[in-house]
């Protein structure tokens, strides 16, 4: 049979039950695994045999769900983490250490920005932020001799900018450095960044992949394309023996296909323990089984809501890469031909006050600090997540006081639009 298509991968990749075995990926609710001899277990510790010995490092439920995500992204290996934050932390820390430098797009999730700008700095890892729209020359100028990774988001949360993946990959590779991208918003249903040159893909699976706001989680997928040994002076952690793990040299023993994920599992997960609970992996998998059916609906609702908002006089600006008037429209057409996601942001005339009145009147959409699940929700960053900022600082951060971020769920789009219409009408009263 030919390679299966995305819809089939969502349902079946990563787990093929044998005769009489559970049809659904079973939850292996066990911290530990039994062996007949110490020698057999020792071979696992030495990475001579494959198997499980402690669920902080690996668990069969998590591995099967990770294998499904690897198949969806077209990668060679993957792992789950306890959250999206943990995924980005491990992906970067796997190849950076004190004295390293990261080049990152400035248009990324606030939590990731903080991780790179503040927490990594405390660990001795420096960074340079660049505009997602910078020229190749500007991008080259951001690199230093100690740059070890380039990071960006395919569709940024919440700015909704679209990354020029090919350009970022090309420049990163010219410096002998991998491109790591966070593909949380499009999911592999709408974009497969590895096909455009990304080396490592990360996810907050808490968003569309789980899709129901049920379980926090993250994932890291390796393309297997980055040649670590060709840049071994930069990546001693992968290309020289790991004394903390029986002297294994990951890139030699596991090759480009598996080295990155093996190191992140055996070394970082072992030491940091930010593992995903197998029960959460099970919920995540239920979400994956309908991802290919849900994403087009999120896009349909996002597009309809964005078009409706753009038609209303109370709305001064709509950010949505699916609108021809959006500055990222052309790039979205290239990288996201089937649409991007269901998240729309917009500004109301009347600023913060108007946003508060408008949101108070919404009946279908709820006020929540979340995005990308089945239920439509919205947030006014100026009065919540960015509450401590002055009007001036808000403007600088590109978060005007009247900005509303709306995550379109899976409800009927006509109800979403009617809800928005009555809440906008309330502004006139
Ligand atoms: C939410 C989010 C994260 C963080 O994920 P958590 O699962 O909340 O830790 C990282 N990146 C993006 C793009 C996100 O939207």
Question: Can you offer a commentary on this structure?
Answer:
The chain is an alpha/beta fold. 39% of the residues lie in helices and 13% in strands. It has a 7-stranded mixed sheet, with helices on both faces. A 5-stranded mixed sheet has the order 8-9-12-11-10. The longest helix is centred in the middle third of the chain and has 23 residues, at 250-272. The N and C termini lie far apart (63 Å). The protein binds pyridoxal-5'-phosphate. The site of pyridoxal-5'-phosphate (PLP) has 15 residues, from helix 4 and helix 5.
Question: Concise description?
Answer:
This protein has 429 residues and is of the alpha/beta class.
Largest sheet: 7 strands, mixed
The helix tally amounts to 16
Order of neighbouring strands in the sheet with most strands:
1-7-6-5-4-2-3
Helix content bin: 25-40%
Q: Which structural category do the helix and sheet elements fall into?
A: alpha/beta
Small molecules in complex: pyridoxal-5'-phosphate
Shape: globular
- Given as residue ranges, the uncertain stretches (5+ residues, pLDDT < 50) are none
Distance between the termini: 63 Å
Run of helices and strands: HHHEHEHEHEHEHEEHHHHEHEHEEHEH
**How many extended strands?**
12
Oligomerization: single chain
Radius of gyration: 22 Å
On the 0 to 100 scale, the average pLDDT is 95
Strand content: 5-15%
